[in-house]
Fold this sequence. Notes:
The protein is an all-beta fold. Helices cover about 0% and strands about 25% of the residues. It has helices at about 35-40, 85-90; strands at about 60, 100, 115-120, 130-135, 135-140, 165, 180-185, 190-195, 200-205, 220-225, 230-235, 240-245, 250-255, 270, 285-290, 300-305, 310-315, 325, 335-340, 345-350, 360, 370, 375-380, 400, 410, 425-430, 435-440, 445-450.
Amino acid sequence: MIRSWLRFNLAPLAVAAGPLSLLLGCGGARGAGSDAADAGHHEPSGGDAARLDGPQGTGDVGASAEAGSKDAAPEDAPGDVQFAADPCIAADTCPPGTWINVTPPSINLANTYGFGSVDVDPARPQDVYTLGAGVGVWKSTDYGFTWNGPINTGMNGSLLNDCSYLRLPLNSTATPPTLYMSCIGGDGPGFWRSTNGGVDWTNYNVDPAAPGAYGQQFYAPAVDPYNVNHLLMAVHLSDMIVESMDGGQTWTAINLDPGMLMGGGGVYSISFVDTGTPVMGRSSTWLCIGSEYVAKAVGTWRTTNAGASWTQVETNLHPPGASQIYQQGANGDVYMAGNESTNGDGIFRSTDDGATWTHVGETDTQEKVAFGTSRHLYAMYTGVAALPSTTPVYSPNMQISDTTGLAWTAGTTPAAMAQGPTWAAVTHDGTYNVIVTANYGAGLWRYVEPTN
């Protein structure tokens, strides 16, 4: 059972409190069957692409996983938390149990790779941020239903419109919020930070940089659940992970076990694990998942001493692109999605902070992201690609479980959701859990979870 939707946000807040504890990962991009597609995944596709700025698509998820659910209200939320109004609930334009396409109508996703990330302000559950290649940074103040943007209109903002990876620190109460961004290609490769809610941006050079052409190209920074300034990033198509202790201003390279080296062409998915026992105010337990389609399939590795040594704990690999794991508080339960494990494709569960793993869910269903609410666990699949106008790129492959993580069933997604999410953000509007997903070329999607 989830201990709290505010697992990392229990400091007293004057107005609001933050999202569920979604752990952060970063990874490469699954192209059309090769890493060549990953190397250039921010460049426009040469083919036709669907445009999702017309009528919004909807579709029922189905109630197959409702058994064993509990009340959706956060268990441990402070009594003075104030939630902003959720206008679409009142207007019945986002009925619970239905996926709704909430891509801003003004955005043309044709020939772009669309939205690569979405995240919630940890101090204001109604404020959601997203970033997409070719569209810049956008903000919602109504739980992801409507959007304003681009908001990166200040210093260096114009350099970042082709970036895809944005994260907010999980336990920050800063006003306005701090945003971290990593970028591959375009006009602004490298690591960026905004301290005024995404308007102005500062670039911090990463030294040591990766060798060769990918020196300042990084995937989404993972943010320590105990320390907003402690970051990890994977370098694009290089056997390198870098760490910062000062919010990205300076960086050092992390020691990797020789068995982890993929020989280039892949990207690690690196995540912090919350064991409930920080070391010197930081998480020293991390999970690193190797990527598919590389010369050497390295599997999944874990460190409990901040990278001084590593142990292989599974043969699971992540589809290239951002990869998301989920943790149900600091009770030992961790979920990861992936493929090509000797134990099958799909969803894996650990009850000991990632030391050992068991395959759960459907055996041969590929998955990419794992996330959850106070009622259910979810897994979905996608790959990085601009969306063709005729056929889906990757099926979302949604699976749902109750919070035990043992009874998984197939969920239903609408046909307009032509590929699944690369990242999912979860928040709460005072009554309902709300999920917002970034689905690359399929746009932004929103799901209000039923309470019964």
